[in-house]
Amino acid sequence: MSTENTKTDYSVLIGKGILGAIPFVGPLIAETVGATIPNQRIDRINDFLLLLEQRIEETERENAKLKFQNEEFIDILEESMLQASRALSKERKEYIASIIANGIAEEKIEYNQKKLLLNILNELSDTEIIILQLYGLPPGEDREYFEKHKDILTPPPPSMRTREQSGINDRTLYDAQRNHLVRLNLTTPKYKKPKRGETPEFDPATGMMKSQGYKITSLGRLLLGNVGLKTW
User: Fold this and answer.
1) 53: containing domain
2) pLDDT at 7 over 50
3) How far apart are CA 136 and CA 216, in angstroms?
4) Is 32 a member of any domain?
5) Is the pTM of this model over 0.85?
């Protein structure tokens, strides 16, 4: 993005009075960040900054001022604003704001960690985050959570896989979302250890050993904790 375009976007941000309406975070943004906002999606940035403002404790504000002078933090903040400008749901903006607020609360910014978590979050759909949290809940709480999101978490009926193309598509999407979480190292398959003399069961569709479900990884727990979702 050219310097001229950056200044134009920044002028729009100031012109709409958004930064001035956010008493603490707004002035810090104005001093340290040349706003890089694609397509001038100002309202989404506004929502994100308000959520960030709410998450910064009064006792953390002096520390926050120092963070806003740190180049690594500014880089993370710019990335968070770009992601917020594309965020369609309030939940997504809350996830991004939580990562940044956690970075402010830390004595020393964990740049590589926060950058990685933002990149991973950017690759996940809101639906995949719902799926991931199911694996991160403590025993006993997953049932209520499952009922709340059962439209997303319930596997398509087996009979639909062959009778209707829509059913096949639903199952394909269901499997793809879970496989994506595995590829990002947020979950890992669980395998049943065969008894002595037994042959492991293989999935005919993949040719791989058939899993008995999934479990969350340490990285998955780290992501959930940083976006403000419950884990154990």
Assistant:
1) 3-110
2) no
3) 6
4) yes
5) no
